[in-house]
């Protein structure tokens, strides 16, 4: 086997990323080990993907069993794992129908296409406007990155898909001014992730739903990051009390195996006829078998309650650390999608915190330049949380006292 190093990334990979020097080679639970056998506690979870940690026995068993049965069929035929997973997702949600894809971006692309097709079929081509929110993130296809409200990700690629308007998140008056009978759909995260871990105000979410109904606009919830137990409800919309028309899910759906899904109602699903949309790998038996095992485990009430219990431990410890080393203005988020916003004295230094944490043997994320993000395994042990936060405290102390 050829030895590889971080230097090889710069030589052979297109430079879309700037990965850390660390190259993990194995993982178990909420811990990973690098090429030099250094151990790290993982509070990043592959960006909210590794919901059962690394190499969880139920995932390994599901993958191994399916790997000895059937790998791929395409959409020319269906398969048992896809059907079982589809039935389970319908049981756990408002939805009647499921479309499988390979990622969150693909699930969102399907959602946006379905919304546009429904509006055109039912109301005419003039009803095409999509409302989305500043600092939103919905994927990297040209359509989804344009709907996402971060120009830095969508500029520089030529003419963009049209009829998309961005407004501030949680701004009721701006939303009232934007929506009309020409609005086809509203796409929003029921808790903004990449945009800084911003929760929706309940009144805002309710108003969005009511005005969508008034103007015959579809409400699309991007639950790519919030879904599959991440917030302590199986889907975040269930904790908000606002039900969307279309929902996208991915990331932790497969616990690390690539899979995405779009969920919707019978009424909307009929607007995707045979050939209207598709995916070569969508509904892949390997992916669906793993996702079925993940969903069966995460959806158990005691596991969802465990997410809420772990959130309380995180918050208490972060507050304790901040009392000693006041670097943070606020801790926010829900469940195990949490953000620590830096105060005015430390603005713009989230990556410095990430790097310092890595030096102490802890993996964390950022959500913009001012927010440190935590998205660990949903079944991380209390011992691993405590030990990880001790490492975080050491990193914060080193920066604070520098």
From TrEMBL:
Q: What else is known?
A: May also have succinyldiaminopimelate aminotransferase activity, thus carrying out the corresponding step in lysine biosynthesis.
Which reaction is recorded as catalysed by this protein?
Answer: N(2)-acetyl-L-ornithine + 2-oxoglutarate = N-acetyl-L-glutamate 5-semialdehyde + L-glutamate
Q: How does it assemble?
A: Homodimer.
**From which domain of life does this come?**
Bacteria
Species this chain originates from: Vibrio halioticoli NBRC 102217
Q: Which residues are annotated as modified residue N6-(pyridoxal phosphate)lysine in the UniProt record?
A: 251
CC per GO annotation: cytoplasm
Which biological process annotations from GO are given for this protein? L-arginine biosynthetic process
Q: What is its main location?
A: cytoplasm
- Return the similarity comment: Belongs to the class-III pyridoxal-phosphate-dependent aminotransferase family. ArgD subfamily.
This entry's comment on the bound cofactor is: Binds 1 pyridoxal phosphate per subunit.
Q: Could you identify this protein by its name?
A: Acetylornithine aminotransferase
Provide the residue positions that the database annotates as binding N(2)-acetyl-L-ornithine: 140, 279
| One Pfam family of this chain | Aminotran_3
Q: Does the keyword Amino-acid biosynthesis apply?
A: yes
A molecular function annotated in GO for this UniProt entry is: identical protein binding
Keyword list (alphabetical) reads:
Amino-acid biosynthesis, Aminotransferase, Arginine biosynthesis, Cytoplasm, Pyridoxal phosphate, Transferase
EC number(s) per entry = 2.6.1.11
| Listed cofactors | pyridoxal 5'-phosphate
Q: Where does the protein end up? A: Cytoplasm
Q: Where does pyridoxal 5'-phosphate bind?
A: 104-105, 137, 222-225, 280
Its pathway is: Amino-acid biosynthesis; L-arginine biosynthesis; N(2)-acetyl-L-ornithine from L-glutamate: step 4/4
């Amino acid at each position: 086997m050829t030895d590889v190093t971080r230097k090889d990334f710069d030589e052979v990979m297109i430079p879309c990323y700037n990965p850390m020097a660390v190259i993990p080679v194995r993982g178990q639970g909420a811990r990973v080990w690098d090429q030099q056998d250094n151990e790290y506690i993982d509070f990043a979870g592959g960006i909210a993907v590794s919901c059962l940690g690394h190499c969880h026995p139920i995932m390994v068993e599901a993958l191994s069993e399916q790997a000895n049965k059937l790998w791929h069929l395409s959409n020319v035929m269906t398969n048992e794992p896809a059907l079982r997973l589809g039935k389970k997702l319908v049981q756990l949600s408002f939805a009647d129908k499921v479309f499988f894809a390979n990622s969150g971006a693909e699930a969102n692309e399907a959602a946006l296409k379905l919304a546009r097709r429904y509006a055109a079929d039912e109301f005419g081509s003039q009803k095409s406007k999509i409302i989305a929110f500043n600092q939103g993130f919905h994927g990297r296809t040209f359509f989804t990155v344009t709907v996402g409200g971060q120009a830095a990700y969508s500029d520089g690629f030529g003419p963009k898909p049209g009829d998309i308007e961005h407004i501030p998140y949680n701004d009721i008056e701006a939303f009232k001014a934007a929506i009309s009978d020409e609005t086809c759909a509203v796409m929003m995260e029921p808790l903004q992730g990449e945009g800084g871990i911003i929760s929706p105000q309940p009144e805002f979410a309710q108003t969005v739903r009511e005005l969508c109904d008034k103007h015959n606009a579809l409400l699309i919830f991007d639950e790519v990051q919030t879904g599959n137990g991440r917030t302590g409800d199986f889907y975040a919309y269930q904790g908000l009390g606002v039900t969307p028309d279309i929902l996208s899910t991915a990331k932790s759906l497969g616990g690390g195996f690539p899979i995405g899904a779009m969920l919707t109602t019978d009424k909307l699903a009929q607007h995707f006829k045979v050939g209207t949309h598709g995916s070569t790998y969508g509904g892949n038996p390997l992916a669906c078998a793993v996702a079925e095992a993940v969903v069966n485990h995460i959806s158990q009430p005691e596991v969802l309650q465990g997410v809420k219990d772990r959130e309380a431990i995180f918050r208490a410890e972060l507050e304790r650390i901040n009392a000693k080393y006041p670097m943070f203005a606020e801790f926010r988020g829900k469940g195990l999608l949490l953000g620590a916003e830096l105060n005015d004295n430390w603005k713009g230094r989230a990556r410095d915190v990430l790097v310092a944490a890595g030096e102490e043997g802890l993996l964390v994320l950022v959500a913009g330049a001012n927010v440190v993000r935590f998205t660990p395994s949903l079944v991380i042990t209390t011992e691993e949380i405590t030990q990880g936060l001790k490492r975080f405290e050491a990193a914060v102390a080193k920066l604070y006292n520098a």
